[in-house]
Specification:
Length: 225
């Protein structure tokens, strides 16, 4: 049974999500603010977090930043809850490592679908990844979910790791943005190509080398080295 943590200060939304997710067979814990939410994350290690963007104590962006800077917490997937007017913050959330977002008001069926798609995608990626890829001084190890460039360990979010692994697994092959969305975020993911572009930009910054090339009007490829 997957453990879901809902961090939401609106009690009606929190209770609605808890009720419907438990009906779907999930084990659900809740927190009413960012401080208690972070405590739950650090002590209970949920399988997935539904995280409101605007929270008292610590907001959602701060919680994501803290999680992604912690190697033990960075692999936990995060779905952010945002208002329609919060597009800039939503993009920031994706840049900082959130895996998906749902815009308020939302249907609980959509939330459940996104949770299942994200958990399914993570399990499939973990199952399908080759054990280790070596490209020059770059080593990508799916057993440890770590990548090293020479002696330096790359601090990657789970999505960045999956993107890098997929691109590096087929050097020279061009992957469209839609393909990357489907195979890293999942076939049921409802997003746009900006999500891929943001993660590619972060990967390039961390790699400090132009091994990921843009194919204009098509997508991206890993340089054949």
């Amino acid at each position: 049974m997957s453990k879901i943590l809902v961090v939401e200060d609106d009690s009606s939304i929190r209770e609605l999500l808890q009720y419907n997710l438990e009906r779907e067979g999930f084990e659900v814990k809740t927190a009413p603010d960012g401080i208690k939410g972070l405590e739950e994350i650090e002590t209970k290690w949920p399988d997935l977090i539904i995280l409101d963007l605007m929270l008292p104590g610590r907001d959602g962006l701060e919680i994501v930043r803290i999680m992604k800077s912690n190697s033990q917490l960075s692999a936990i997937p995060v779905i952010m809850l945002t208002a329609k007017s919060e597009e800039i913050d939503r993009i920031l959330g994706l840049e900082m490592g959130a895996d998906d977002y749902v815009t308020k008001p939302f249907s609980t069926r959509e939330v459940v679908a996104r949770i299942r798609a994200l958990l399914r995608r993570i399990r499939k990626v973990e199952k399908d990844l080759d054990k280790k890829i070596v490209r020059g001084s770059l080593i990508i190890d799916s057993d440890t979910y770590e990548a090293h460039l020479g002696e330096r360990k790359l601090e990657l979010t789970p999505k960045e790791f999956q993107l890098l692994h997929l691109l590096a697994s087929r050097p020279g092959k061009v992957f469209t943005r839609d393909f990357l969305l489907e195979h890293v975020w999942g076939y049921d993911y409802i997003g746009d190509s900006r999500t891929v572009d943001v993660h590619i930009r972060h990967l390039r910054q961390k790699l400090e080398d132009d091994v990921i090339e843009t194919v204009r009007g098509v997508g991206y490829k890993f340089k054949d080295i």
